[in-house]
Design goal:
The chain has 8 helices and no strands. The chain has helices spanning about 5-20, 25-30, 40-50, 55-65, 80-90, 95-105, 110-125, 130-135. It starts with a helix and ends in a 20-residue tail after the last helix.
């Protein structure tokens, strides 16, 4: 299946705005284009991540990685999976983010390595007592600091 030319142009324009550090402008521009598709949803989600609206981004990424509603689709494009995990981290759901990252097929991809690096720094910053609770699934309410830029386009 090919991507329509109008969608390609819209994605290129949004990508350029994001590269210029204008994710809100890109989000506004995407709102004026009713054509959808997973590429547009992903781009909108990245814009939301970069404007601090992670829970709204999570709502956009969810159908991209859970198309049937129940099981994570590990055959989805890798950046959809890592963007979903990024949104989970930003809303404080570290446990599910870690489980999602662990299921990404290409563990050597730079997006996966970047998230794993952020998680490693986060874990190292926890005190001993908080770290020993992690294997029990008890994750502290401590934000994970992510490297910029947040989200992959």
């Amino acid at each position: 299946m090919t991507t329509p030319l109008k969608t390609i142009r819209t994605l290129d324009e949004a990508r350029q705005l994001i590269k210029e550090g204008k994710p809100q402008d890109a989000l506004d521009m995407l709102a004026r284009h009713p054509e959808g598709g997973p590429e547009i949803l992903n781009m909108r989600g990245v814009c939301l991540l970069r404007t601090g609206k992670a829970s709204k981004a999570l709502d956009l990424f969810r159908p991209l990685v859970f198309p049937g509603g129940f099981c994570l689709d590990t055959s989805a494009p890798l950046i959809y999976l890592t963007n979903y995990a990024t949104a989970l981290l930003l809303v404080g759901n570290v446990l599910i983010a870690c489980e999602t990252i662990a299921q990404v097929p290409d563990q050597r991809h730079e997006a996966v390595l970047r998230l794993r690096g952020a998680l490693a720094r986060w874990k190292n910053g926890l005190n001993f007592f908080r770290r020993i609770l992690l294997p029990l699934g008890l994750y502290p309410d401590v934000p994970v600091e992510l490297d910029s830029p947040i989200g992959d386009i």
